[in-house]
Amino acid sequence: MEQLTTEMIMVMAMICVAVFLFIVEWIRVDVVAILVMVALPLLKLVSPQEAFVGFSSNAVISIIAVIIIGAGLDKTGTINRLVTPVLKIAGNSTSRIMIAISITVAAISSFMQNIGAAALFLPAIQRVSKKLNIPISLLLMPIGFSAILGGTLTLVGCSPLILLNDLLAPFHLKPFNLFDVTPIGAALVACGIGYFVLFGRFVLPRQGPSEETQDKEIPFSLTDSYEGMGEPRELHTPENFTHYREPVTIEDVRRRYLVNVVAVREPPRFTTFNPPGDMELRDNMDLVVYGSEKNIERLAEEEEMVLKPSLDVFKDALSQENSGTVEAVVAPRSALVGKTLAQAKLADHFLVTPLAIYRQGRTLVTEISNVTLGVGDAILFQGTWKRLKDLQNEKLLIFTTPIDMEEMKPEKAAFAAFWLVLALTMVIVFKIQLSVCLMTGALGMVITRVLTIDEAYQSVDWRTIFLLAGLIPLGIATEKTGAAAWIAHQVLGALGGSVPQIVLLAVIGILSTIFTLVISNVGATVLLVPLVVNMALAAGSDPRMAALVVGLATSNSFILPTHQVNALYMGPGHYRSVDFMKAGGVLSVLFLVVMIGTIYLFYL
Amino acid sequence: MAVITISRGSYSKGKEVAEGVAAALGYECISRDILLEASDRFNIPEIKLVHAIHDAPSILDRFTHGQLSYITQIQCALMDRVKHGNVVYHGLAGHILLQEIEKVLKVRILADPALRVAVVREREQVSEKEARRMIAKIDEERRKWTRRLYGVDPWDSSLYDLVICIDKIEVEGAVRLICQAASQEAFRLTEQDRQKLRDRALSCKLRSALLDLDPNVTVTSEYGNVLVFTRGDDRKAGRLEKKILSVAEGMDEINNIEIRPGEPKPSGDA
Predict the structure, then answer these.
(1) Which residue of chain A has the CA closest to B228?
(2) Residue A280: beta bridge partners?
(3) Does the pLDDT value for residue A533 go beyond 80?
(4) Average of pLDDT values for B177-195?
(5) pLDDT tens figures, A471-509
(6) Using the beta-carbon criterion (under 8 Å), do A371 and B263 form an inter-chain contact?
């Protein structure tokens, strides 16, 4: 057996430091990864080339490409269309949505790279979270874990299982079939989803987009200051609305009821956003209004309109993805100081609706177009994100709420879908390397102007890239110095020759789990399979099962954000390492129990 | 359905004309009773109100806003009576107190000085010289009153829609002319006009309740959405705001109230 060398000790120390820093979070996880990436060549544990090899690795390039493809699909509304039927089934319940998306992602993940499935669904999940106001942290981790678990459903679901038959070949063992692992995979997916349904609320942090935005705001809350003015309501005029009645205009509604009409739809389907003040309300019209609940109810009652419980006709057009309210403050030296909103003609030029002005503790809603603006006046605007962005670009006002703008390009949906199909065909049919196929798809998105190249760059989450690329050299160092082999030998050697098969499989499972947290799952598989096969043969156990445990347990990577999927979801989900340890720790134990249990019951 | 104000020179048979018009149209005829109403409502001796509406403001008044506040109370009582329409108001300053309201038929009744003297002599049992002196004094006082407070001359005929010299037309003729004018489209009140009258009455009511705290307060109302423009004096702002809100609380007609300290007042509001 190899002797313990100084390099091995240094690598193990480095792993300990990295894990310690992940836990205490004195510095952010991606910075820890960069620290590792820089420290390893300085300590001569890897060569400088190896230190940065992560940036050119198949995994990292694939992730970059798949994020760009995902952004393209999202921008064209393709993902929305895919998710809509899933949501229809799931309704509004957080658990049902989580189950529906988790099963979908797990199913997709069983035939393609976990990270691909996870990245493609990220924008959709963000959309769902925003639309239904569910904290994203309650959805992302369960779905991400399902993507990882889904990889165990078939023999092509994740890299370790793809490799498994090749690794068994030298030992002349019977290769596994495509669906041999499916019962175990299904049990694992069911266990993972069940775990989050039952215990999700205890183990998952509740952070949502709302909290994130609040951080960026000035300290008073928008909704409190504007007395519920920030929520759109939909009204419908009856069939005989114009009978025996003086004409009612948009301006009348504003002046009389202090209610702003921001969109109307006339039969058959003529929609007007930010309609002009002199537009008359007619029969069978749907209108979206902003105002206090009391005034909207008064409008509905006095003008005999039907107040709908939630947005109906305008559900999509005025959903939070497309439009909303933002607050903007009149800056010192702004051209607006001393002018009224009517004089500035902001509503006409930018097609946005000013809803209220907040001034010295007072909320003004009556005749606000005639209020002379002063420095520090905060104005609540409603409009589509695009129009609000245009207003922001004019630099007349300081926006205190970030604009959640996303310009959709539904007309490019066919192009986006084509590039995805092409990339997948290249992977599945022509067996070209994943990163090349996905990058082709990503490039196609840019060339066909689904995304601009700048948008493509902006869509990539660099935290994820640095986290993954930074940890790759640590894996290399662990293998190169022989530290991994030394640990494996030590552990398996300590077991001795005659142990019950279930104990042996459990130890192999634990060892693979620990290895996969630090070194890549492929690296762990390549390293461990030959070792455990030999061990099993020596102990008289089934060597195929020992190898299978390694192949599966290298997917048991939930405790640290080192797995690609975890790294990808960490930023958008606002997770901390502690969250992964808390929720992932329990799941890792469950994973081992279910996996060994299923193998023991059905395979031995 | 209309609102008619009849401004009359003293002793010009204006009262008879007003009563005739009210009877012919089935309208309510109001005059001095609004003073009594204001006196009751705001607990001000009637004599002070009479002086306020009759005499030109004194130097002291200009500093204390005393007279202005009385006039506001009178205006408030008047608005409250005319807010539903179908009213003939005769008496001094009707055309001024209701000057912001469109569609009010403003009539001025004049009489030849000789006729007025005759009426005074008959009513007051005084000499011709004394009668002339009395008429001249009253005319001068009223002229000063409107000039000082509103900057207009009550003898300026452009302030009125109809000026009738009663000498030859007689009371019946004047009643006929006024009824005819009132039936014109321009003076017919629509639902919107009545809403404006109600809003005006509301803003007058609120303003008169706030006068003792800040005579410079301006109040506007549209569909019961009230704006109160104050001077933005920080020292008084808190007290004033509290008072405004507590007064407003008792007024069901108010839908929404906002205070706008330091903002320019819109012209022509209560």
Answers:
(1) A366
(2) A249
(3) yes
(4) 87
(5) 778 878 877 888 878 877 787 777 766 678 888 899 899
(6) yes
B3-187 is classed CATH 3.40.50.300? yes
- Backbone φ, ψ for residue A432 (5° rounding): -80, 155
**Domains in chain A: how many in total?**
4
Q: Which CATH class is domain B191-261?
A: alpha beta
The residues of chain B that CATH labels 3.30.70 are: 191-261
Together in a domain, A80 and A205: yes
Is residue A585 located within the same domain as residue A485?
Answer: yes
Distances (CA, A) of A423 to A116, A409, A435: 11, 21, 10
What was the ipTM of the complex prediction?
0.75
A303 contacts in B (CB within 8 Å)? none
Separation CA B116–CA A521 (nearest Å): 115
Let me know whether A388 and A427 are in one domain.
no
Considering the domain architecture, whether residues A488 and A574 belong to the same structural domain is answered as yes
Relative orientation angle of helices A78-90 and A58-75, to the nearest 10 degrees: 80
Q: Please provide residue A365's backbone torsions phi and psi, each rounded to the nearest 5 degrees.
A: -130, -15
Query: Which residues in A lie closer than 8 A to residue B226 (C-beta atoms)?
Result: 366
In chain A, which residue's Cα lies nearest the Cα of B192?
A246
Last residue of some domain: A365, A399, A433?
A399
Q: Which residue of A has its CA nearest to B263?
A: A372
Which residues 309-368 of A are in CB contact (within 8 Å) with B?
362, 364-367
Is residue A71 in some structural domain?
Answer: yes
In 3D, which of A357, A320, A321, A361 has the Cα closest to residue A340?
Answer: A357
Q: What is the pLDDT of residues A441-468, one digit of tens each?
A: 999 999 999 999 998 998 887 877 887 7
- Which stretch of DSSP H or E encloses residue B26? none
**Lowest-pLDDT range, A79-93, A464-478, B128-142?**
A79-93
How much is the pLDDT for B243? 81
pTM greater than 0.80: no
Neighbours of A498 (CB within 10 A): 9
The residue whose two tokens read 């070949």 is A169
Give me the residue label for tokens 């009978």: A243
Among B223, B226, B260, the residue with its CB nearest the CB of A256 is B223
E strand residue ranges, chain B: 3-8, 28-30, 87-90, 104-110, 162-165, 218-222, 225-230, 256-261
pLDDT tens digit sequence for A132-173: 778 888 999 999 999 999 989 988 778 788 778 877 877 788
**A422 found inside a domain:** yes
Q: Is residue A26, in this structure, part of any structural domain at all?
A: no
**Whether residue A77 sits in one domain with residue A117:** yes
Q: A303 lies in which domain range?
A: 224-307
What's the mean per-residue pLDDT of chain A?
A: 83
Please check whether residue A337 lies inside any domain of the structure: yes
Decide which of A307, A339, A361 is a domain's last residue. Answer: A307
For residue A392, what is the domain's CATH number? 3.30.70.1450
Does the beta-carbon distance from B192 to A298 stay under 8 Å? no
